[in-house]
From TrEMBL:
Protein known as: Amino acid transporter
Example of a GO cellular component annotation carried by this entry: membrane
Membrane topology classification: Multi-pass membrane protein
Source species: Talaromyces proteolyticus
Region (Disordered): 1-20
GO molecular function, one term: L-amino acid transmembrane transporter activity
UniProt KW Membrane keyword: yes
Classification of source organism: Eukaryota, Fungi, Dikarya, Ascomycota, Pezizomycotina
Length: 602
C-alpha cells in the first residue's frame, strides 16, 4: 500500500512567508513556469510530458489516453513479471525485475515537481524513471489486497445480525459487486496511466476525469478512512491487550500503548519492499482464524464480552442473564426479530462491507506493478480467497457462538489460553496493518492536502521531513482519541464502512467509469490526440456529455447510474444505523468514553 515517493508533489511556497509576500512569490513562480514552458517547447511548438505540472489541467483526456495505449503496447512485449500461476500468487518473488530496460542511470533523472530541474530530462529518461518504479508482481498484489485486519473478524458479527440466509446472500452480492468495481478501476487505470503521465492514487483518477475538486475530495476521504482504520486498530489491540492482562491493565492505558507504538513506527517515511509484510499478515490472520475456531468449538463464548456482541445490537434480552444464567446460544435462518427494527441488521451489513475495503488503494497497487494488466487476475483471485475463507470462518463462528459472537470475534472466546493466543496473533497482524495504514494515511493527507492547499513544504525538503516528525504523534493521538472517546467498536466500523469504504468500493468506481466511457466515446467521434500537433477536441458541453452518455453500449452507463444511487442509499442507511447505535449505547451506559474497563470484557 505504500506509494512511490519518486514523483512527489510540486514545490510549494515557504509557509513562513506572510500572505501578501507569498502571493507575490507565487505570481513570480507562475510567470517563471510560463516562460520556461514557452522556452522549453520543441521546435514544432509541442510541450513534452515532463514539462507539464504534476497535476496539469491543460493535459487533455485524449493525451492521457494516447500515452496509456503506448505504455500498454510496450508492456505487452515484456517477458512475464516474476512467477505466474498459483505458485506465483502464493509465493511471490521478494523483488522482481522492474519494468525498465536499457542501461540508463535512473538515479540521475530528476523527477521532481520543479519544471526547471526537469528541463534536462529527455523523453526516454522520463519514461525510464517511471518504469523503474514498477517492480511489483501479481503475487505481491494478491497479498496486498488480502492484507486485512478487520474484515474476517467482523464477518461473524455481521452474519449474526442478519441470520444464515441473508448473511450468505448479502456477502455473496458484496463480493460480486466488489469484484466488478475492481474491474472498473482496472479498466480506467489502463486507459489513463502511462510512463509519461503515471497514475499514483485514487485521487489521480478523479482529477483526470472530473477535475481538481474531485481529487481533493477523494484524497481527504481516503485520509479520513485510513485515520479511522488506525483508530479501530488502536481499539481492537487495546482490547486484546487488556483481555490478555486479565484487565489488570486499564483499557485506556492499553490503547495508549499502541498509540505510543505508532509514534515510533510512523517515523519511517518510506515503506519499500514491504510485500513480505503483507504476505506475513495474511498467514497470521489465517492462523488467528484457526485458533479462534478451535476455541469457539471447544470452549464456547466469553460472557464477559457481551457488551460487544451481536446480541446487544439485535435485542439486549438475548444476552442478559436471568437469575445469573445467560440465555442459551441461538441462531436464526432469517433476519432475527429485534425491537430496534432493521438498525441492527443494517449495522451488521456494514460490518460485512469491511471485507472489501481494499478498493481504496487499488490504483496504488497497480501503479507499482510491472504489468498492471496482471492486476485483474490477482484481484479476482484475492476476492475469491476473501469470499470463501472469510465466509467459512464467519459461518463457523456464528454456528458455535450464535448471538454471543463478538466484534472482533477473537475477543469472544471463553478460554483464556486460546483467547490470548488469538489476541497475540491479532495484535501482531494489526501492528503491521496499523503501520501501513498510518504511513499511507498521513502521506495522502500531507501530499494532497497540506502541500497543495496549505503550501507546506514537500517531504523531499528538510523542512518537510521535520514537519513529518511532528505530524506523526498528532495523527496517532487523533486515532487514540477516536478509540478512547467512542469505544463502541461495532458502531464505529459502521461509520467507516458507510461513509468511506462503501464509497470507494461501490460508489466511486461506477461514477468514474461513466465519465471515462463518455470521454472515450468523444475520442471515437472527434478523433484522438495527435502528438504532432498536440491537438485534441477534449472540451465537452452538457449536451455533448448527454449525447455521448447514450452512445455505444449506453445501457452500461444507465446501469452504473443505478449502481451509484444504490450504493448511496445503502450508505445512508448505514449512517442512520450508526447514529442510532451510538444514541442507544450512550443512553444505556454500555459505551463510556475514556473508560478503564474494557468494552470487550474478559
Amino acid at each position: 500500500m505504500a506509494q512511490p515517493s519518486s514523483l512527489m508533489q510540486g514545490e510549494s511556497g515557504d509557509p513562513r512567508l506572510h500572505t501578501e509576500e507569498r502571493q507575490i512569490v507565487e505570481k513570480l513562480e507562475h510567470e517563471r513556469e510560463k516562460e520556461f514552458l514557452a522556452q522549453g517547447q520543441n521546435l514544432d511548438g509541442l510541450i513534452r510530458p515532463q514539462q507539464r505540472l504534476i497535476h496539469d489541467p491543460d493535459v487533455s483526456f485524449a493525451e492521457y489516453y494516447h500515452y496509456a495505449q503506448q505504455t500498454r503496447a510496450e508492456e505487452d512485449t515484456q517477458p512475464p513479471a516474476g512467477k505466474t500461476g498459483l505458485i506465483g500468487l502464493l509465493f511471490p518473488s521478494k523483488s522482481g525485475p522492474g519494468a525498465g530496460h536499457g542501461s540508463e542511470d535512473v538515479s540521475k533523472v530528476h523527477v521532481t515537481g520543479d519544471l526547471v530541474q526537469r528541463a534536462v530530462v529527455s523523453d526516454d529518461e522520463w519514461a525510464q524513471a517511471s518504469r523503474a518504479l514498477r517492480t511489483a508482481t501479481q503475487g505481491t498484489a494478491f497479498y496486498l489486497i488480502t492484507t486485512d485486519i478487520l474484515g474476517p473478524f467482523a464477518l461473524p458479527y455481521a452474519i449474526a445480525t442478519v441470520g444464515w440466509g441473508p448473511g450468505v446472500a448479502l456477502y455473496t452480492v458484496f463480493a460480486a459487486l466488489a469484484g466488478y468495481s475492481g474491474y472498473l478501476l482496472w479498466d480506467i487505470f489502463l486507459g489513463l496511466d502511462s510512463y509519461q503521465f503515471p497514475v499514483r492514487s485514487f485521487g489521480d483518477l478523479g482529477f483526470r476525469l472530473y477535475g481538481k475538486y474531485m481529487r481533493f475530495g477523494f484524497s481527504i476521504l481516503q485520509g479520513i478512512q485510513l485515520l479511522l482504520n488506525v483508530g479501530l486498530i488502536t481499539m481492537s489491540n487495546g482490547g486484546a491487550l487488556s483481555q490478555a492482562s486479565k484487565e489488570k491493565l486499564c483499557y485506556i492505558v492499553c490503547c495508549l500503548v499502541w498509540a505510543l507504538v505508532g509514534y515510533f513506527s510512523g517515523q519511517v517515511r518510506t515503506l519499500q519492499k514491504f510485500g513480505w509484510l503483507a504476505n506475513a499478515a495474511v498467514w497470521i490472520n489465517i492462523l488467528c482464524m484457526l485458533v479462534s475456531m478451535i476455541g469457539a468449538g471447544k470452549y464456547g463464548p466469553n460472557y464477559g464480552s457481551v457488551d460487544s456482541s451481536a446480541g446487544i445490537s439485535i435485542d439486549p434480552a438475548l444476552v442478559t442473564p436471568v437469575n445469573g444464567t445467560y440465555p442459551p446460544m441461538q441462531s436464526s435462518g432469517g433476519i432475527p426479530a429485534s425491537p430496534t427494527g432493521f438498525v441492527g441488521a443494517v449495522g451488521g451489513v456494514m460490518n460485512a462491507v469491511f471485507s472489501y475495503g481494499g478498493s481504496m488503494v487499488f490504483p496504488e497497487f497497480m501503479a507499482e506493478m510491472r504489468k498492471p494488466k496482471d492486476f485483474l487476475w490477482a484481484m479476482w483471485a484475492s476476492q475469491a480467497f476473501i469470499y470463501f475463507v472469510y465466509m467459512f470462518y464467519g459461518l463457523f463462528m456464528y454456528g458455535y457462538q450464535g448471538q454471543y459472537v463478538a466484534n472482533p470475534s477473537y475477543l469472544g472466546i471463553a478460554s483464556y489460553g486460546i483467547s490470548t493466543a488469538g489476541n497475540v496473533l491479532a495484535m501482531l497482524s494489526a501492528a503491521i496493518a496499523a503501520a501501513l495504514y498510518g504511513n499511507i494515511g498521513l502521506k495522502v493527507l500531507y501530499n494532497n492536502v497540506f502541500v497543495e492547499i496549505f503550501n507546506l513544504p514537500p517531504l523531499t525538503k528538510t523542512s518537510g521531513k521535520i514537519l513529518w516528525i511532528g505530524f506523526i504523534p498528532i495523527y496517532w493521538s487523533i486515532a487514540f482519541v477516536i478509540g478512547a472517546a467512542i469505544p463502541n467498536f461495532s458502531a464505529l466500523t459502521v461509520v467507516v464502512a458507510a461513509f468511506c469504504i462503501l464509497q470507494f468500493t461501490y460508489t466511486f468506481p461506477p461514477l468514474l467509469h461513466i465519465a471515462y466511457k463518455v470521454k472515450r466515446a468523444a475520442i471515437a467521434d472527434r478523433g484522438s490526440f495527435d502528438p504532432a500537433t498536440s491537438a485534441s477536441a477534449d472540451k465537452l458541453s452538457f449536451n455533448d456529455y448527454l449525447r455521448y452518455f447514450f452512445s455505444n453500449r449506453w445501457y452500461l452507463n444507465v446501469i452504473h447510474v443505478f449502481y451509484v444511487l444504490g450504493a448511496l442509499a445503502c450508505a445512508g442507511l448505514g449512517a442512520y444505523s450508526a447514529i442510532e447505535s451510538y444514541k442507544s449505547s450512550f443512553a444505556s451506559g454500555v459505551t463510556t468514553s475514556f473508560t478503564c474497563k474494557s468494552p470487550f470484557g474478559s
